[in-house]
Amino acid sequence: MTMQDQAKLGLVAGYGHLPKTILQAAQKMGYKVFCAALEGMADDSYKMSLETVLYVQLGEIQKTIDFFLENGVEEIILAGKVDKKVLFRPDTLLDSLAKGLLSSIEQLNDDTILLGVVSLFQKAGLKVMDSTALIQSILPQEGVFTPWQLDESQMKDVHFGFKMAKAIGGLDIGQTVVVKNLAVMAAEAIEGTDEAILRGGSLGRNGCTVVKVAKPEQDLRFDVPTIGCQTVQSCVKAGVSTLAFEAGATILLDQKEVIDLATQHKINILAVGYQGDQ
């Protein structure tokens, strides 16, 4: 296969290890990857692993589109956490596309903004792929991953947490809740998962349960729930005893490291198949 024939993939990379996991999977499959890395969110390592990478600010949508089109890219994946608080800072650079998008939408919630961004990419001729398309093997099915079985009281908190997390997900507020004794200690909003975990732990003290789920109408092109070592480290700091996530709908990064870290700190890790009547 010549370089001209090699399949191309665009990657918009935010915070965290997920974009790197997708990058590695794509390269193993033979893709030539062109990465638009978000300044202040993606780290510098993309420069070392890719021939073609462009660092852009969150509001430089046109620059990102031009980068992909100039390199003959037709399909892209959006991956990694994005600090949405950046949008509310007065010094954030917003190009005409970003300004037009933000002024045209009624609510600045996650799905509305991201659907708008996806629409801009697709109007430019860039297909936005399912972000899990290349990494299906790291979406675990139902099961307990740590050495302990939860008792009835703990499972009640897990099921209660799922119901609450699905509710806030349906309102496009967040995907994560922290609960204890059938009471919500914290619900994720714009601050993100880790901060919600720390806040919930400070209120519930030791023994809280964290539950992360997919939204009821989850768009797999963006914001797919993700668990990794950072999540577990936040649980350790918050004194959390159980971390549960939705089976088959949550990306589990670095599974061995996550399980080892959770086991070391006696935190239950489980993937649960959610039923609407839980």
Short description:
This protein has 278 residues and is α/β, with parallel strands linked by helices. Helices cover 36% and strands 21% of the residues.
Structure description:
- The protein has 278 residues and is of the alpha/beta class.
- It is 36% helix and 21% strand.
- The protein is built from nine helices and 13 strands.
- The strands form three sheets. It has a six-stranded mixed sheet with strand order 6-13-11-9-7-8.
- The termini are far apart.
Strand order of the largest sheet: 6-13-11-9-7-8
Secondary-structure-derived class: alpha/beta
The major sheet is characterized as:
6 strands, mixed
The end-to-end distance, rounded to whole angstroms, is: 51 Å
Instruction: Give the H and E element order.
Output: EHEHEHEHHEEHEEHEEHEEHE
Q: Kindly state the mean pLDDT as a whole number?
A: 92
Q: Per the principal axes of the C-alpha atoms, what is the gross shape? A: globular
Number of strands: 13
- Percentage of β-strand residues: 15-25%
Helical fraction: 25-40%
Number of helices: 9
Parts with pLDDT < 50 across at least 5 consecutive residues: none
As a whole number of angstroms, the C-alpha radius of gyration is: 19 Å
Task: Outline the fold blueprint.
Blueprint: E1 8-13, H1 18-28, E2 32-38, H2 46-49, E3 53-56, H3 61-70, E4 75-79, H4 96-104, H5 110-123, E5 127-128, E6 143-144, H6 152-170, E7 176-180, E8 183-187, H7 193-204, E9 208-212, E10 226-227, H8 229-238, E11 240-246, E12 251-252, H9 255-264, E13 268-272
Parallel strand pairs: 1-2, 1-4, 2-3, 4-5, 9-11, 10-12, 11-13
Antiparallel strand pairs: 6-13, 7-8, 7-9
